[in-house]
Every structure is written in structure tokens, then in C-alpha cells.
Specification:
- One of its GO terms (cellular component) is cytoplasm.
- Its main location: cytoplasm.
- InterPro entries: G_OBG, GTP-bd, GTP-bd_Obg/CgtA, GTP-bd_prot_GTP1/OBG_C_sf, GTP1-OBG_CS, GTP1_OBG_dom, GTP1_OBG_dom_sf, OBG_GTPase.
- Helix 8 (375-383) runs antiparallel to helix 9 (389-402).
- The longest helix is centred in the middle third of the chain and has 15 residues, at 256-270.
- The protein is α/β, with parallel strands linked by helices.
- Helix content is 23%, strand content 22%.
- It has helices spanning 57-61, 172-179, 229-235, 256-270, 289-301, 318-331, 343-346, 375-383, 389-402, 404-411; strands at residues 6-12, 45-50, 64-66, 86-91, 94-98, 104-107, 114-118, 149-156, 162-165, 197-202, 208-213, 240-246, 278-284, 307-309, 361-366, 369-373, 418-421, 424-427.
- The chain has ten helices and 18 strands.
- The strands form four sheets. It has a six-stranded mixed sheet with strand order 10-11-9-12-13-14, sandwiched between helices. Strands 3-1-8-5-6 form a five-stranded mixed sheet.
Amino acid sequence: MKFVDLAYFNIKSGKGGDGAVSFRHELYVANGGPNGGDGGKGGDVIFVADEGKSSLLDLKLQKFYTAQDGFKGDIKNMHGKNGKDTYIKVPVGTVLFNADTDELLADFTDNDQEKILALGGKGGRGNARFANSRNKAPTIFEAGDPGQEINIKAELKVLADVGFVGLPNAGKSTLLRAISNSKPQVADYPFTTINPQLGVSRDKQGRTFTVADLPGLIEGASLGKGLGHEFLRHIERCKIICHVIDMSGNYATEDVVANYNLIRKELLDYNFNLDKRVEIIVANKIDIEEAQINLLYFKEQFKDKKIIEVSGLTKNNIDALLLEIGSQLENVKDEPLWLIEDQEISDYKVYTFESDLKDVQVRNLGNGRWSIEGNDVLKVYQKTPISTHDNLLLFNEKLKTLGAYDMLREKGAQRGDVVKIFDIELEWMD
């Protein structure tokens, strides 16, 4: 299957069923009361983590996912049937964001983990719910609440303890072969690895951990050049970064210090919180003669950094590398980068002010025509259909409570003017 680690799609939960308007008509029962039932709840859109999936290809191909609407209430106080939920399976390691706001919605790290992202609309109440001593035969009913609609961005971030980073041909794939049972493609040309490769390693103390060979970086990757973000998103989950450097200096420049600084810059330009990750510098290809000279120069520049000298080809000093990784993992904090607070921001306190203002907008359209809009008006409009006289009275009362009619008077609405409220038009009779 093609490896796809980014997908955009739309989800929509089901609308709640409308309440029913009905009255008893049994033989020998005079003046039967209301018995309209409530509408059913709309279906939810639920995501489930599935360790059997390894790609977001399905989500990339299917752009829309909808749950079933709830069914309308019926006579004899019968409740409408609830709409069916829609389940969407995603690979373990998937992170879901609101594509419009970049808000984090869900992070799937365990198999069978579930998350409801779009909740189905609540069913409307039937007229049996509105009977009282003053109105024993109401024709009032409620429409079901609308479903939620969200544009989703899904990212698959590799779940690995350790990530191998470095320039193309630094020897990351050869090193992964040497420390695990993984068999990534190895060849003497850049970008041999174009998808993350995973392997499981064990050190001499029996500690096991997963290692990811991540595609090679080039200068400008943080801006999308080369494999760019196709690679960088995967490093965000890794607890430890192993920076693999070709000490023979065969790629980019012969200056191994410049090669190291180049990759460091790309990582921090992508996400400066990567600087908070534990880093192990792996001086690879020390079996090559030129590497010994470059290694002395590199150590002189970075005296305070942990450097492990290895050869992925000859497997020289592999055990020391595994022991260092195992020891570091025992103490490292497991925290995704997107949950780490930025120090610059967390030092400031943000004050917000609560407001009880309603979202009601009254506009003069000219020629005796007006419009009433706003989110609070929309809720009233959706919840209270004016298909019965009682509902029309209730609709008017709700708008009056929102202050819409006071605003019309203040702006100069005259008797006989037409007031447009979304798809309906009413005559102003004040």
C-alpha cells in the first residue's frame, strides 16, 4: 500500500430528528390529548485507532464522511430512531487537527482508542412535551439540532522512541540494519529512503525500543524543499534524536561541522521545541580513513556534546550506541512537541472578559425591508420551525427575548415592513 501521512477531509454528524405533532384519536376517548413523540438523535462521527492500518490513503481518497440523521418522532409518543454512527479507522500515531483553526482535536497513541469528533444533533421534542394546564392541545414542536461539520487535517506521525536524522547518504539505513532486524533499502545515492522505516532494537541490558530511519534532509527542508515536511512531521513524536553524521564528509560539503549545523538549523526552523529533545550525535563511517581526521576536528568544535563513534557497515561500537540510547530513554520525558508550552508565551498571563451580549444583527435593506441575522438567531430559527401557529408564537417570543424586536424599533421599522430571517419573510405588525 502507498504510504500517505497527510490527508484533508470533511466530517459531518447527523441532524437530530424533528419532534412530531399528533393527537390521540382512539375510539371512545373524547378530546384526546397530544401524543407526538420526540425525534431521534443524529449519528456521531467516531474515530478509532487501528494498529493494522499503516497509511492515511483511505482518508485521502474519500473526502466526505457523514453520519445518519435521526428519524422524526411519531404518533402515540413513539420516539424517533437514532441515526447510525459513522466509524473511521486511522493508524496508531495519527493526530487530527481542525483544518480551519489548527486546533488539536485528537491524538491516537493506543490501539482501539476511540474519540467522538462530531456529535450528532439532539432530537427535537414532540408536542406531547408542551402540554400544560393553560394549553392542553399544543401544536408546538421542536426541530432536531443540526449536526456538527468539521474540516479535518490528519497527520500520521511515526511512533518511535528514537529517530535517526541526517543528510542523505549519512548511513542511517545501514545503521538501522545493524541495530535491528529491519531491512531498509540501502544504495549509494541520495534519498534511498523516501518513507520512514521502523526497526526494534535491544541493548545488552535487555532494554528494547523502536528506532525510525527517517528520510534524509537537505538545506531548506523546513521550507518544504526536498522531502521537506514529508519528513519533518515524523521527528515530532521521537523521544530521542540520533543525529547521524557521515564523518567521511562525502555529502553537501566536506566540512562535517557545517553539515551538522545545517541539519540542526532545519530542525529548529521547523519547530524550535526540537531543541528540548535529547540528542545523541552518531559519528558514522569511522572505518573510512578520512573520517578519523574529521572526527578530531568535530570533537574540538563540540566538546560538550555526547558523541558515539560507530560504523554501520562493520557494526563497530554498535553496542555502545544501543546502551547509550537505552540509558537515555529511562530518564526522558514522553511528551509530544505540540503539548510542550512555549516558554516565551507561558510567562505571560492572558486576561479575557466574559460577555453576555447576544449575537443578533439587524440590518436595513431599504424599501421597507429588514433582515435579522446572527448565531443566536440561527439557533432559534433551526430549533423552532414556524409550520404551526403555536410555533410561530413561540418563535416570536424567542426573538423578542433576544432583543431583536427592540433593535427593529430603534432602527425605525414601520408597520407593514418585511423582515427577512434567513429563508423566511414575516410582516412587521408592531
